[in-house]
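Our collaborator T.R. sent over the components below with a one-line note: 'Predict the complex.' Nothing else. No constraints on interfaces, no templates requested, no preferences about which chain binds where. So this is a plain run: every listed entity goes in together, and whatever single assembly comes back becomes the starting point for the next discussion.
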Amino acid sequence: MSDRFLVTYHVRAGADTIAARAQAIAVEQSVEMPLDAIEAPEILRDIVGHVADIADLGGGVFAVRIALATATIGGDAAQLLNMLFGNTSLHDDVVLADVEIPPELAASFGGPRHGITGLRRRVAADGRALTCSALKPQGLPAERLAALAVRFADGGVDFIKDDHGLANQAYSPFAARVRACATALRGRKTRYVPSLSGSLDAMRAQLLLAREEGIDTVLVAPLLAGFSTVQALVAGFPDTAFLAHPSLGGASRVAPELLIGKLFRLLGADAVIFPTHGGRFGYTPETCRRLAETARGDLLGLRPALPVPAGGMVLSRVPEILDFYGLDTMLLIGGSLLAARERLTAETAAFTSRVAAHRYR
Amino acid sequence: MSDRFLVTYHVRAGADTIAARAQAIAVEQSVEMPLDAIEAPEILRDIVGHVADIADLGGGVFAVRIALATATIGGDAAQLLNMLFGNTSLHDDVVLADVEIPPELAASFGGPRHGITGLRRRVAADGRALTCSALKPQGLPAERLAALAVRFADGGVDFIKDDHGLANQAYSPFAARVRACATALRGRKTRYVPSLSGSLDAMRAQLLLAREEGIDTVLVAPLLAGFSTVQALVAGFPDTAFLAHPSLGGASRVAPELLIGKLFRLLGADAVIFPTHGGRFGYTPETCRRLAETARGDLLGLRPALPVPAGGMVLSRVPEILDFYGLDTMLLIGGSLLAARERLTAETAAFTSRVAAHRYR
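Returned assembly:
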């Protein structure tokens, strides 16, 4: 068993203060008390975090690596987040940059249950990137969302997810929405991906209802739901694939490649949605590339998770985005297909055929 | 019913770009799609967020108020957070500054079930501030934590909370810890406040076990647990009082007075722990004062929540802190009492008697 695992923080500090600041983080993220008040030598030896090394990244920022005790996690996903960044998230001179996940944690969390292979199998798509769009705007009744889903499906899209704003509102309650969309798409290859909301109890009831309707893939936002909630759902519904949404991701304080690429995958997300470069959000190409590689690269034997670039994508960028991310990717275009209005199916067909025909550089 | 409620964002922008940026946030936090792609006029009228006003705060920062549709929340706490800051949290030019909570949301969430009065009644303390300390370091076995609790209780402290790092680790599992501490404090006025962790299922089992042991107050970290989890616990255990911990609060992106003072209270936290000025964290005195006033001031008929300043407090600061926060406050001193080691009970007694004897300016 790994007694320790390394956590990397990027810390703004002076060259004369960084050693003390690093030591303070090591204490804050482990025992949170003065070390000279600790009477038990085994706690100082086995539990207190210690500074492994400090590297000057230039520009007043240092990479601090801290070795935390694996025993402090206790196998719970929210507690992992607590030990990584709980109190330190309240300090605005620190970004949580990376974690070397201990193998036994990877084994106990389990990561994606379906991953890229399982998502491809659902829609019988090999040798090309996958495609996705989104049902919106919220406010539409269930039947109109279902009608929209049919038009996307007619255009050949693989997955149609609920907009992450669709919860259990009066205008399209989860049950009515899922029944309407599942009925409308029955017998088709296209998968409808409803968004879970509410407590673990509510989400479980939603998953049972979705399963009755033949749905095998759902959307969840781990930072809204709570990491332990997602951990429980993934373990409790092993036949269901999970797409993770980055809502409330507060990108500037936790490195996106860590949060979305690594931690969401560890939790069991089979696909991870993130705002790609050049869209409405500020992630750089380098961040996006690292995020995608982290999601699907080697990680302690966990299944690869499918990167899903999104957030203001348009049809004209499909070739560029495919060359950037490669084959094991799912492109998500929502608003810009909807903007075609009466031409939505044709625009969706242009999207899906462009993805299918793309020749990778 | 209030169709709309106002959300305030602080946005870094130029005078020439702020109008467009504000409009983009209004769309992102409601329908998240191009408005000209929306075919239904009732969505444009009833669901799309609109910019209410923009005020120049100076220094390149603007206060943008956006009117969101109350119907988009659907009564779920995590969905409230999603609509307030879901995707916009991914933009690092925006801080979520404030929300005018609609009365029907306050009524349906319910806020604190016990509040300041209920916490005072638990420990029969009137006319003075309350006192609190913390069991740590993690790594100690249950019996040693219980022995520590007895020494704090001998010093007369009102509440003894688990360190928020105490979860369900092998070295002091929740059940063993709670039984040991509850047994050790049985018959005393001092309340032991265990920290909940894991999924909603796990937390419910922990609450049932705690209740069997006579415990009536618990600790929970809403950002780790998920807002909907806390909402379900508060509704399901109306006799239990909840202390909220700010772990993972990412203070620089959500105004602390909003997140901890207002939203945690709305969720039902009876007391809210926060890092006070002059300690290990960077909140200013003005932020702390506003946070405390938001937690216990008038808010749509909700019971007041007790402000619990913490985070590096020391005995010598007690008079200053009491004058700053006033009577309806609970002081939380952890590490600095533990640093007294063999004099822990005497130091705790000095703390509690100083609080009891304080004459407010």
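Summary for T.R.: Chain B has a mean pLDDT of 92.
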